[in-house]
Structures are given as structure tokens and as C-alpha cells.
């Protein structure tokens, strides 16, 4: 499966998603590693096996093994952190004062440029809806020199990949 197979599987009413996927797949704002890792991390976060398989098949071979593992790690660690920190943010109270006591070592040593990992973590956080994490990662990205266009491109990928995953889930349901 590939990007073309994803586009072929999308129904006519999702034409905008096909067009967005095509334009984002050819994006030149992000580096090739940032682009591929963002697509893979977001596919995993979107929780659709067909989309994950297709985008990993498309971008996995373009990434160094360490970058592929880091993209997967970003989806994994943010799957945990987004739940925890969304709770802390929404509930408030004394929870923010308590140590999380959750292992997050991969964030400090992801095996790739820290800015790339932060970008992937931010995009996954957008899919998972954790405002606290999005704000934190966006600040880190801006401090590292990425522009608003870099951040927006990653979030556009997250939004499109998530929408494709949702759409394909609906297509696979019986009529």
C-alpha cells in the first residue's frame, strides 16, 4: 500500500483529503526526515492500520533506521503523555504540582535531532488533543528556530492523516 493506494481508497466525498495528501506529500517546507517522520508518527497516532501501513511503506525506506524508530517512539511516548498531561491541564488543582513519575527518557535522547522529535511529538499531540503538550512542544520548536510555517505544516499533516484515517474507518463499515 502507498499514498496512491490511500487516495484510491478514499471516496469521492473526501476529494479534499486526496488533494491535501498530494500537496503535503510534496511539501518542501520540512526536511525529508521531518516530513517522513511526521507522516509516520501521525499515522500511528491516528490508529488506522491501513493508513499506518501505507505511510510507513511510503516513508519508512526514506528514513534512516534511527529516524524511523524515533518517529514510532514519538507516537508511543505522546500516546502516554497526552493522556496524562491533558488530565493535569483539564482537571487542574494540585496535580500539576506532583511529579508525573512516568518514564520519558526517549524525549531527552530520541536518537535523532531533538527538533525533529519535538516536531513529531507536537503533531501527535495535535491528533491526541493535548493543549498543554502542543503549547510546550511549539515553544521548544520556535526556540530551536523553526518557523510558524514549519509548525503549521506538521499540524496540517496531522489533520489530514487523522481525517483520512477517520474517513477510511467509515468506508470500511457496512452500508
TrEMBL record:
Enumerate the UniProt keywords alphabetically.
Antioxidant, Disulfide bond, Oxidoreductase, Peroxidase, Redox-active center
Instruction: Read off the InterPro entries from this record.
Output: AhpD, AhpD-like, AhpD_core, CMD-like
GO terms assigned for molecular function: disulfide oxidoreductase activity; hydroperoxide reductase activity; peroxiredoxin activity
Its GO biological process terms?
cell redox homeostasis; response to oxidative stress
Occurrences of domain Carboxymuconolactone decarboxylase-like (ranges): 94-167
Concerning Pfam families, the annotation shows: CMD (PF02627)
Disulfide-bond pairs as recorded: 130-133
Q: Which family does it belong to?
A: Belongs to the AhpD family.
Per the entry, what this protein does is:
Antioxidant protein with alkyl hydroperoxidase activity. Required for the reduction of the AhpC active site cysteine residues and for the regeneration of the AhpC enzyme activity.
Report the protein name in the record. Alkyl hydroperoxide reductase AhpD
* Protein's gene: ahpD
Amino acid at each position: 500500500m502507498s499514498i496512491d493506494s490511500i487516495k484510491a481508497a478514499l471516496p469521492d466525498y473526501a476529494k479534499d483529503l486526496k488533494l491535501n495528501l498530494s500537496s503535503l506529500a510534496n511539501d518542501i517546507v520540512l526536511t525529508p526526515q521531518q516530513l517522513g517522520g511526521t507522516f509516520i508518527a501521525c499515522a500511528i497516532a491516528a490508529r488506522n492500520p491501513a493508513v499506518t501501513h501505507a505511510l510507513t511503506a511510503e516513508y519508512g525506506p526514506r528514513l534512516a533506521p534511527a529516524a524511523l524508530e524515533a518517529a514510532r517512539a514519538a507516537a508511543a511516548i505522546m500516546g502516554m503523555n497526552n493522556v496524562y498531561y491533558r488530565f493535569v491541564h483539564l482537571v487542574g488543582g494540585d496535580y500539576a504540582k506532583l511529579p508525573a513519575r512516568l518514564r520519558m527518557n526517549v524525549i531527552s535522547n530520541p536518537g535523532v535531532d531533538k527538533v525533529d522529535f519535538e516536531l513529531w511529538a507536537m503533531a501527535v499531540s495535535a491528533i491526541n488533543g493535548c493543549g498543554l503538550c502542543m503549547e510546550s512542544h511549539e515553544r521548544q520548536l520556535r526556540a530551536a528556530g523553526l518557523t510558524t510555517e514549519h509548525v503549521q505544516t506538521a499540524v496540517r499533516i496531522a489533520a489530514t492523516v487523522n481525517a483520512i484515517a477517520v474517513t477510511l474507518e467509515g468506508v470500511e463499515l457496512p452500508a
